[in-house]
Amino acid sequence: MSSEDESIQAVITLLSYVPSGDRFDIACAALVVYEYILTFPLELHVIWGHKLRGAAVLFILNRYITVVYAILIIVLSLGTWRTGLFRNLLMILFLPNSCSAVGYTAEVISCIQCLILGVFSALRVYAIGASGWWAASVAILMGITPVAIYIV
């Protein structure tokens, strides 16, 4: 048996212990990470090759918050955070309640994603609409409403 076949079999064995609902989360997160790896050279040319402006900062925040969240989903879904290296790493980073700290980290990342989406939506409404800042203000208020709900 080749090493590639053994690697595939190891992944299948690992995923057989994961609940089916988490497999979908892992697949989606893996797709996000894969897309980021594929488009990284283009990002280097288009974004990092020029002066950073507001739109570029918004793009970078959106891109890297999403990839961090995807990696967090993969780690949490595989259950490897309970044992071994990930448990030790989490105990170092999030003493003493690593489980709740990871959950809080996921919630904070969700809030940041909602804020980014609200700002992006407001900029789109401002650019497309003739109503000016009034419509953009309504759009950003609607976009940040989930953040207020998460906080409460």
From TrEMBL:
Keywords: Membrane, Transmembrane, Transmembrane helix
Top-rank taxon: Eukaryota
TM regions (residue ranges): 56-81, 101-120, 132-151
Matches recorded under Pfam families: DUF6533 (PF20151)
InterPro entries assigned: DUF6533
Keyword Membrane set for record: yes
The UniProt record lists the keyword Transmembrane helix: yes
Residues of the DUF6533 domain: 26-67
Name this polypeptide is given: DUF6533 domain-containing protein
Originating organism: Grifola frondosa
